[in-house]
Amino acid sequence: MRRSYSVRRVMRHQRKPAELLLVPMIDIFTVLVTFLLMTAVFSRTVILELKLPPANTTFKDPPPGLQLEVTVRKDSLQVGDRNSGPLATFPNKDGAYDYDGLSSYLQLVKSKFPDKTEATLLLEPDTLYDTVVQVMDHVRVLEVNTGLSVTPYELFPDVSIGDAVLPNAPPNAGSAPAASARAASAVVAARH
Among 33, 48, 117, 147, which lies 20 to 30 A Cα-Cα from 82? Predict the structure, then answer.
């Protein structure tokens, strides 16, 4: 049976609006949030606090034993004692720093001074940030491959930074702890 146009028009205006069902939408969002939380990768930022080196060694007697300094030069890495001077120098190999030689030597130093945890990193001007981070990583931790995994061993985790004495500087110019303009307590994001 056919209805007239006017009857259909009246019935169309009397219809109730369609209801919005929120339950299926809430279900979809619940599944979506659960999926995103399970697959999200949370990056971990490690913060390393650097300490200032001693202000001036002339005002205070240095403690007995080794005061380890690692100097980053443009053409080499140098390990030394603040009191006795350079101990070992590792020239660049093929235009890159000899991090393996540095790690091997620091491992030897750690075996002789197992209770020592402090080291001072002295930098020449214009040292690249990546170089600073890599040297700090090699001074702080020794990574040893054990089968399929890498095992970290602590070397000298308490790192101070300062300016290196330039090779052509006067002999009485103090080392970085004495007159460093750049040395400051800093927080550096190290990568692991």
Answer: 48
Statement to judge: residues 59 and 85 lie in one domain: yes
The secondary structure of the chain in percent helix, strand, coil, rounded to multiples of 5, reads: 30, 30, 45
Closest C-alpha among 179, 177, 191, 86 to residue 132? 191
- What are the beta bridge partners of residue 65? none
Same domain assignment for residues 163 and 71: yes
Number of separate domains in the chain: 2
Going by C-alpha positions, the residue among 87, 52, 75 that lies closest to residue 158 is 52
Q: How far apart are CA 80 and CA 30, in angstroms?
A: 60
Give the Cα separation of 63 and 152 in Å (integer). 29
Instruction: Give CA separation, 142 vs 82, 101, 120, 134, 175, in Å.
Output: 23, 12, 17, 12, 27
Residues comprising the chain, all counted: 192
Q: Which domain holds residue 33?
A: 5-39
Shared-domain flag, residues 10 and 52 = no
**Do 35 and 64 have their domain in common?**
no
Same domain, 111 and 161: yes
